[in-house]
Design brief:
The protein is of the alpha/beta class. It folds into 3 domains: 6-230, 3-Layer(aba) Sandwich (Rossmann fold), CATH 3.40.50.300; 246-460, Rossmann fold (3-Layer(aba) Sandwich); 464-502, no CATH class. The protein is 31% helix and 29% strand. The strands form 6 sheets. It has a 9-stranded mixed beta sheet, with helices on both faces. Helix 13 runs parallel beside helix 14. The longest helix has 18 residues, at 143-160.
Amino acid sequence: MQVLSKTKTGINGLDEITMGGLPKGRPTLICGGPGCGKTLMALEFIVKGATLYNEPGVFMAFEEKAGELTTNVASLGFDLDKLQKNKKLRIDHVHIDRTEVEETGEYDLNGLFIRLDHAINSIGAKRVVLDTIENLFAGLTNQAILRAELRRLFQWLKDKGVTAIITGEKGQGTLTRHGLEEYVSDCVIFLDHRIVNQVSTRRLKVIKYRGSLHGTNEYPFLIDEEGITILPVTSLKLDKNVSAKRISTGIPSLDEMFGGKGFFKGSSILVSGSAGTGKTSIAGSFANATCMRKEKCMFFAFEESPQQIIRNMKSIGLDLNKHVKKGLLEFHSFRPGLYGLEMHLARMYKLIKNFNPSVVVLDPVTNFVSVGLLTEVNAMLLRLIDGMQNAGITLMLTALNSGTTEHIDENVSSLVDTWILVRDIECDGERNRGIYIMKSRGMKHSNEVREFIISSRGLDLVDVYRSSEGVLIGAARKARQKQEGVRTGQNGNGQYRARIKK
């Protein structure tokens, strides 16, 4: 059985969505509205072909001149002048003025074919881009001639054996302005730039691909200093490898609640609680323990700046700045309203891929509710958890469970492997903290409520004191222990322990 040959684009994520690249020796249409990234994607296809796969390319522009294209993509690290000098790239600008086009007699593209054929042969091009096709047929209204010439153009490119991209502008109710190009193209990719709730998002969808399976969903993509990155984040298969290795929580007394061994490596952990209960401190301790093992940790903060977190963690005896200087800890801090949910997910995926950490922390995920509905946030977090498990990365999420976000931790808890709950406990006019392990899949764990103490020496858990009056914590516990001859305090390791006075 003959299998369709494909040409790798070199564009991050696109080859995965198209399951190998664009159809080799056939034309592909990239269409969309203004500002959606058509020209950039086509130009990156040419540049990546020349630099990664030794396939020279011709870029025939009907709008922008060669100098303008060179300037526009210089910030992405694309040196078009150097590629042209090395005969890896040929840029040909064809000026067509609509006022100079008059439908008299027959209209054909023979002049374009001669010019394009010369450009291809001059560098032995394997890839061709025509940007944009509307300008090529400017002023033509005869649909019969237009359709015939479009078919002839696409067939000429096939006969030439080049892998071609043709860009086209979105029409009214059609993928392109003429509404014909999508029917004669072997592959059609639609780019969309939309704004929802004042948040800008770019998305890609493969409309059709003759002779090949392909991803059928909409995929968010980024345009940044590295070009275009498309992340197929909707692949959710329950076939992930798991590890039996255990890693420390960073809090010895919390490790004891997990049988003295901590979390499973590559698992997902949710730490939820009301404001001021120490969720970020737990996350900071976990990040610190990761770096102490000489492993990398990436910390996404959605409320505080990295400087605030580093300063605040010093108050509990943690020096995170030394890990940052060593390149073991990397912070990324931004407000959720900066992007849409899927753009946040795409951005985090890309940053994680570049840094390659063993632990990722998100603090707190409840802030995403300001960007989307609760169900949309849960769907986004499901994709993130799934992706981290596929990569074998341990993921810790913190969540605020007060006010309007009270239920997000309950929804996310079904997705994670371990759920730790920290709550305020008010007693005799005093506010203290209690910590619970709500669940931890696949391991024996404590079902007790422990008093959670935050001090300048770090974080610790102590057993609640049971008396005839019930459970006592904080000052009430200390007073009763003193009354009954029980001495309390921190030992040399900074760990709280209750010891019976001899």
